[in-house]
Amino acid sequence: MDITFKDVSYIYQPNTPFEHRALSELSFHIRSGSFIAIIGHTGSGKSTLLQHLNGLLRPTEGEVTIGTYKISADEKTKNIKSLREKVGVVFQYPEHQLFEETVEKDIGFGPLNFHVDQEEIKRRTREAIKAVDLPEELLHRSPFDLSGGQMRRVAIAGVLAMDPNVLVLDEPTAGLDPRGQREVMDMFSNLHKEKKLTTVLVTHSMEDALRYADHIIILKDGKKHLEGPPLEVLVRKKELEHVQLDVPEVIQFLSEVEEKFGKTISYHNQNIAQLAKELAAMVKGGDDHE
Amino acid sequence: MSSSMIIGQYVPGNSVIHRLDPRTKITIIFFFVLIVFFANSVMSYGLLTLFAVGSAVSTKIPANYLIKGLLPVWFLIVFTFILHLFVTKEGEVLFSIFTFDFYTGGFIQGLAISLRFFLLILVTSLLTLTTTPIEITDAIESMLGPLKKIRFPVHELALMMSISLRFIPTLMQETEKISKAQASRGVDFRTGPVKDRIKAVVPLLVPLFVSAFKRAEELAMAMEARGYQGGEGRTKLRELSIGRLDIYIYILFVLVIIGLFMTRS
Amino acid sequence: MSQFIEFRDVSFRYREDQPWVLENVSFTVHTDEWLAIIGHNGSGKSTIAKLMNGLLLPQQGEILVDGIVVNEETIWDIRKKVGMVFQNPDNQFVGTTVRDDVAFGMENHGLPRELMLKRVQSSLAAVGMSNYQSHEPHRLSGGQKQRVAIASVLAVAPELIILDEATAMLDPKGRLEIMETIRQVQENQDLSLITITHDLREVIKADRVLVMNQGRRWLEGDPREVFAEKDALMNIGLDTPFVTKLAAELSAAGLNIQREPLNHQELLEELWTLHSKM
């Protein structure tokens, strides 16, 4: 589903001493099927933006369009519930939303609310638990007996079971150990391709943005600071520093190489082994990168 | 957060009333609540209104904010007035609608009772508007101090209150977060039959309790790590002190009381 | 270098019917050093922290802090020497305002009010939070709350501070704040420091690293020695810095990298030397 923000502003607690403008005339367009990363510091408006994607918040001004759904200040969105079925949101620390007696019931909770029939729920539950790489035996356990990492996966499975077209991820790897982080991100990347999802990733990690996204939006104080493909956006050191973000480490390193050796190695998503080969060739005095 | 949550919430400031010792404020409000019932003439009501409104103005809290805060009770105030208008049949007939007569007595009495009501609510809300909850807790701990002699756990009570106060905003944020997560999974908290709406609370309450217990456990551990072992041998950073300002206010208030009894009819 | 903490064959489990969380762990922490403890989630690293100030007591073996055996009788003295900052910024903020929270530990230890007033100022200054004295916790960022937590610990004047994944829940800005705060604090005061973390940038700055795996001491050494074991670290679920990975691939591509690099600068120097020899 295409997602469009048109001059969207959002104000918390308007007309009180606590009034706060979280989004300010924000406009952008996300093509259906793309993997976009939204980056910005705490307070940049990321989580406010995210809540517009499934109608948890309605813009104070402007209009949000998701597929055929329209959300705006004066217009009550029709079928908000069916919008929420199509846009799955994995919130930060999603394991905090678990509540059922068994993992199976918890994963099936979303589909049940959307009146999916029992057979289909069963099928989706099994598919979802497989997608998050947990054994089916866990289905009959209480979610509260699992480890933190497993609980996270169950919560994610609960969102996947809704069979959404758009997947919104709010820092899905926060608090996991390095292996867990890698596994969870790879899992989302695979799902994105397999299911042809539109994926919106809210993250602090420039490395993840570079690795997984095909389009990046950087927010600052509720406004759009930068936008474009990763290899265009994430190399703009000065503008990133302006919002206190670092360029991804590999790009930083290559720019240091350029400074020292006077030769450029361009980054085009090659893996470390590939990069090492190019570097080695340069160090040995090869001419292939003049 | 919705705007209704800010009613009565502390508004930072540096006015005379903000700077008073919280015990002074509680004491004066307590007696004000008592003496309001002694007012019975235009002059005595005027005096109390002057005191209450004067106090409110001196806090420098915007008037529209104060009035908004009183909004939920406006209804009660107006209702009281109308009730008296209908029920009390004293004095002369003021006017009639159809066959129903309205009397001056009802009008006056309704006005007086509503005014009392208004004054009480205004003055008590000034306490929470100008005093941080923790100051109120300190004041209560101090004022209950004598009860320690009969083994009443004053310190524990105060600590419990202050920790609850500390965690109210945190738990409110948490509630909002979880309800949004569940709404995203298709839970409808707002519409549908009552039975369904009650059922919708379960996915909210269970995670909330789980997380509250986890917080409590972690907080207990953090407190222990920082050497907490009960009230004994503990010193306190917070100190309440009755200053010159408090004395002036007490004197002013005594004058108001004297004035009140002189202007009673 | 004297020993500040010594673990002697320590084993610990939460319940008798459960597996050991720590098994026969022995190591020492020196006075004034910075030790980083790493390991996958569930490797027992947080348990180590809680054993150090008697929040947990071991079933087997013993732990010495500054020469004192940790047990029921000594925990209150030990908690004055060992301060801890936990992972969740919210669940360790006891006071209703910043100032109250910093005072909480001192109040528990019964310090006189005049001293408390001084130390509240000095420890908040040490973490750069002097302007937030009467702020309430919900108006602070995660990083700010953790700085307050560090100030609260500093106020009691401990000899060792343990940061138990204190940056795990923070955004990059908050992490930087905390790293910078720790660096300054360690520079200005005589303190031993233990950081339990997944963040490799923290690990690189430590004097020594202890790697835990499945309840056992797996490896101990300075960061360079530890990251030289890149493949083995990856196998137990840990990550290594970008330069470490790149250096390994460069070796595989036929370059003779002499010394395990810890940062960009070192690797660039190494490459430059190789380049000039070609």
UniProtKB/TrEMBL annotation, chain A:
CDD domains: ABC_cobalt_CbiO_domain1. It comes from the Bacteria. Signal peptide: none annotated. It holds the Pfam family ABC_tran. It is an enzyme of class 7 (translocase). It is found in: Cell membrane. GO terms for cellular component: ATP-binding cassette (ABC) transporter complex. Residues 3-246 form the ABC transporter domain. Its main location: membrane. The keyword Lipid metabolism does not apply. Keywords: ATP-binding, Cell membrane, Membrane, Nucleotide-binding, Translocase, Transport. Its EC number is 7.-.-.-. Coiled coil: none annotated. It is a peripheral membrane protein. Gene3D superfamilies: P-loop containing nucleotide triphosphate hydrolases (3.40.50.300). GO terms for molecular function: ATP binding; ATP hydrolysis activity; ATPase-coupled transmembrane transporter activity; cobalt ion transmembrane transporter activity. Forms a stable energy-coupling factor (ECF) transporter complex composed of 2 membrane-embedded substrate-binding proteins (S component), 2 ATP-binding proteins (A component) and 2 transmembrane proteins (T component). ATP-binding (A) component of a common energy-coupling factor (ECF) ABC-transporter complex. Belongs to the ABC transporter superfamily. Energy-coupling factor EcfA family. This is Energy-coupling factor transporter ATP-binding protein EcfA2. It comes from Thalassobacillus cyri.
From TrEMBL, chain B:
One of its GO terms (cellular component) is plasma membrane. It holds the Pfam family CbiQ. One of its GO terms (molecular function) is transmembrane transporter activity. Its main location: membrane. It is a multi-pass membrane protein. It is found in: Cell membrane. InterPro entries: ABC/ECF_trnsptr_transmembrane (IPR003339), EcfT (IPR024919). The chain crosses the membrane at residues 28-53, 65-87, 107-129, 247-263. Keywords: Cell membrane, Membrane, Transmembrane, Transmembrane helix, Transport. The keyword Transmembrane applies. Belongs to the energy-coupling factor EcfT family. Transmembrane (T) component of an energy-coupling factor (ECF) ABC-transporter complex. Unlike classic ABC transporters this ECF transporter provides the energy necessary to transport a number of different substrates. Forms a stable energy-coupling factor (ECF) transporter complex composed of 2 membrane-embedded substrate-binding proteins (S component), 2 ATP-binding proteins (A component) and 2 transmembrane proteins (T component). This is Energy-coupling factor transporter transmembrane protein EcfT. It comes from Thalassobacillus cyri.
UniProtKB/TrEMBL annotation, chain C:
InterPro entries: AAA+_ATPase, ABC_transporter-like_ATP-bd, ABC_transporter-like_CS, ABC_transpr_CbiO/EcfA_su, ECF_ABC_transporter_ATP-bd, EcfA_1, P-loop_NTPase. Keywords: ATP-binding, Cell membrane, Membrane, Nucleotide-binding, Translocase, Transport. The keyword Metal-binding does not apply. GO terms for molecular function: ATP binding; ATP hydrolysis activity; ATPase-coupled transmembrane transporter activity; cobalt ion transmembrane transporter activity. Residues 5-239 form the ABC transporter domain. It is a peripheral membrane protein. One of its GO terms (cellular component) is ATP-binding cassette (ABC) transporter complex. It is found in: Cell membrane. It holds the Pfam family ABC_tran. Belongs to the ABC transporter superfamily. PANTHER family: ENERGY-COUPLING FACTOR TRANSPORTER ATP-BINDING PROTEIN ECFA1, HEAVY METAL TRANSPORTER. This is Energy-coupling factor transport system ATP-binding protein.
